[in-house]
Amino acid sequence: KELAKLEPPYLIHCTEGKDRTGFICMLVEALAGADYQQIADDYMVTYDNYYGITADSEPDKYQTILEKNLDAMIRSIVGDESIDITNADLSVYAKNYLLKAGMSEEEITAFLNRICE
Fold first, then answer.
1. How far apart are CA 83 and CA 5, in angstroms?
2. What values do phi and psi take at 108, rounded to 5?
3. Where does the pLDDT of residue 4 fall: very low under 50, low under 70, confident under 90, or very high at 90 and above?
4. pLDDT at residue 117, rounded to an integer
5. Burial class (CB in 10 A: 0-12, 13-18, 19+), 108
6. What pTM value is reported for the model?
7. What is the rounded radius of gyration, in angstroms, for the C-alpha atoms of the chain?
């Protein structure tokens, strides 16, 4: 709600950028229309930066991190285990998540207008 009132850029951070920050960034990216692969690529930069884990260097760990961390976060906003999150329109689920969390349509639109300019 507060970001909808403020001009970007925004600084969102936590210790390593993969948990709280990862969730917020995933939610914002989904809201703005990013697809699963775009969100996954962005999320996994943290694991490359901190641990050197990439799809090429450690494919099994990379996939496990996606499934256990990112996919779990995305599923928490989708709310339906039967949805194929790799092909879903995540913007719809992100918007619904924010509406349920107490943001209004107007606040969501204002925020989107600020970040998509």
1. 33
2. -65, -45
3. confident
4. 73
5. middle
6. 0.91
7. 15
Cα separation, 37 vs 114, in Å, equals 23
Distinct helix (H) and strand (E) counts, the chain: 6, 0
Cβ distance 26 to 43 under 8 Å? yes
Per-residue pLDDT tens over the stretch 16-68: 767 888 899 999 999 999 999 999 999 999 899 999 999 999 999 999 999 99
Residue 114 CA, distance from chain mean position: 17
- Residues 29, 38: contact at Cβ < 8 Å? yes
- Give the C-alpha separation, 90 to 77, whole Å: 9
Contact 109, 2 (CB under 8 A): no
* CA-based nearest residue to 51, from 69, 32, 26: 69
Q: Compute how many other C-beta atoms are within 10 angstroms of the C-beta atom of residue 54.
A: 14
Gap between the terminal Cα atoms of the chain? 18
Angle between helices 71-78 and 90-100 (to 10 degrees): 60
